Amino acid sequence: MKEPYVFMTLLIPGPKGPCHDIDVYMRPLIDELRTLWEIGVETYDIYVKQNFQMRAALLWTINDYPAYAYMSGWSTSGKLACPYCASNTSHRRLSHGSKTCYLGHRRFLPSDHVWRNQGSQFDNTRERRLAPKRPSGDDVINELSELREITHGKDGKKHTIFGFGKDHNWKKHSIFFQLPYWKTLLVRHNLDVMHIEKNVFENVIGTMMSIDGKTKDSLNARLDLQEMGIRQRYHPEEGDNGKLYFIPGDYTLSNDDNKALCQWLMELKVPDGYSGNLSRCECFRTYLHKLKTYVRNKAHPEGSIAEGVLGDECLIFCSRYLHRVETKFNKRDRNDDGGQPSYDTSPLSIFSTPGRAFGKGVLREMSIELHKAATHYVLQNCDEALPFVQEHKNILIQSSVDNVEESHRLQFSNWISKRVTELYNDGKVSKQMLSLARGPERRVTYYPGYYISGFRFHTLQRDENKKTQNSGILVKGENQVDDVPWYGTLVDIVELRYTEGNRVVLFNCD
After folding, report:
1. HEC profile for 91-159?
2. Closest Cα partner for 356 from 463, 453, 500?
3. In 352-480, at which residue ranges do the beta strands (DSSP E only) sit?
4. pLDDT the model gives residue 483
5. pTM to 2 decimals?
6. In sequence order, which ranges of 209-249 are alpha helices (DSSP H)?
7. How far apart are CA 197 and CA 205, in angstroms?
8. Contact between residue 482 and residue 464 where contact means Cβ atoms under 8 Å apart
9. Which helix (H) or strand (E) holds 63?
10. In terms of Cα–Cα distance, which of 466, 463, 468 is closest to 276?
11. Which has the least CB within 10 A, 67, 96, 362, 472?
12. How confident is the model over 152-162, as a mean pLDDT?
């Protein structure tokens, strides 16, 4: 579903949508899909270096609920709105809310489920019905064959199939069934998750925050509850002035809670790339927005869009063959860390870990205590230095030192420097190991940010002026018995400089 792999097949002129007449515009596409399935297209296979007859099939469509009706031919409004329950759709008309609600969801539960008997928690009835049978493609074909076929077009007339809204909800014979394989598909039309998430979120938040025009908790809704005989606590009551009042629901937020929620959303910071900026309310429909930006001549918007899309497709096609030119397909990711580790520059793993700093670096001189701590930490976390760590501890144990770990921490840096120097003079260790043993310079570089493993990290100071939060560090515990993760905030990013041009970056957390 990424943009480079989406191409426009139809451009239907406005200003109004074709609704159920969309089959008129789908005719050329269906003809091409039939050709792709029955005959195929001669295609060159670059791997085996020969031509073959490529065939293709349409798996399904993805659309919102109104477009579902235009694609499938089954109307998604009214009493029989569910395309799968079909004529067995459970519906009820709310007299005060003037809406149709569908409360038959318990039919899909196991027959012994406890919710089937909880009438007061739902619509004041017990559910004994079984789930309706899902219609197959053959069932749809048989049902449509018994109905009058309607040819849609812009003739200004409304066509209705006999029995609509009572026995069925078919508005037309879908053109997709002219594809030979369409009736065999288990799923022919999908609902767009984006619209479902958006609608559910808006309805839930609108009800919780009592937003005018968005809340579902209205006086008419309370009157419908009273008529259904459920949720007696929420029934409206008549006041002294003759008006009806009802208590807020347990889910309703107070004014202070609404302000706190909005303030939290406005100040919310998430890691870079985790989500869009909620405070800006980014568009859920970015591709459609991009198509609208192509319009240069408002007298001919369709031509502008077609010209812009054609130019984009040509550029995308050509860019796949420009291997030595940076394009959107081969450019580095915004959080690129510099690639895979390179062992050509250093045989030590600690000097060859991929990563790159960003932002303005500041040179500072470390204190003696912090310099010793940083040197010891690097030596303890270098795989090539572990044999020397064990050797020094064995020497301390043989010398009957009271506190081996404390003595090791205080003496190891000086000891390994002398030990590795002796080995280097005998030609037994590399220059890189000698550089590591002698420790880093006192002057180090502090950076505000760093890229590593495809992630972006900021110091706490840099995060204060950003919309994202990238200063959090999570470290899993090493003890298998008490594996408690540790969470801290990144305070400093320090680059230690060794001889031979080697660098080591340390994250200092609180």
Report:
1. CEEECCCCEEECCCHHHHCCCCCHHHHCCCCCCCCCCCCCCCCCCCHHHHHHHHHCCCCCCCCCCCCCC
2. 453
3. 356-358, 362-365, 443-447, 449-452, 455-458, 472-475
4. 63
5. 0.66
6. 219-228
7. 12
8. no
9. strand 61-63
10. 468
11. 362
12. 68
Close Cβ partners of 354 (under 8 Å, ≥ 6 residues apart): 337, 338, 339, 340, 341, 342, 452, 453
Structure tokens at 435: 């550089």
- Non-local (6+) Cβ contacts of 177 within 8 A are 140, 141, 144, 183
As a whole number of angstroms, the distance between CA 69 and CA 138 comes to 19
DSSP tally for the chain: helices H, then strands E: 13, 16
| Cα–Cα distance, 370 to 372 (Å, whole number) | 5
Nearest one of 379, 377, 397, 378 to 388, comparing CA atoms: 379
For helices 368-380 and 404-425, the axis angle rounded to 10 degrees is 80
Structure tokens at 229: 């005989």
pLDDT of residue 344: 46
In degrees, to the nearest 5, what angle opens at C-alpha 357 toward C-alphas 355 and 360?
A: 175
Alpha helix (H) residue ranges in 209-247: 219-228
CA distances from 480 to 391, 468, 476 (A): 26, 33, 10
Residue that is written with structure tokens 């014979």 in the block: 173
Q: How far apart are the first and last CA of the chain?
A: 42
Biggest CA-to-CA distance, the chain: 103
Give the H or E element holding residue 419: helix 404-425
pLDDT digits (tens, 9 = 90+) for 123-140: 888 999 999 988 888 888
Cα distance between residue 465 and residue 459, in whole Å: 11
Q: Between 18 and 357, where is the model more confident?
A: 357
> Could you tell me where the beta strands, DSSP code E, fall in 237-324?
237-238, 244-245
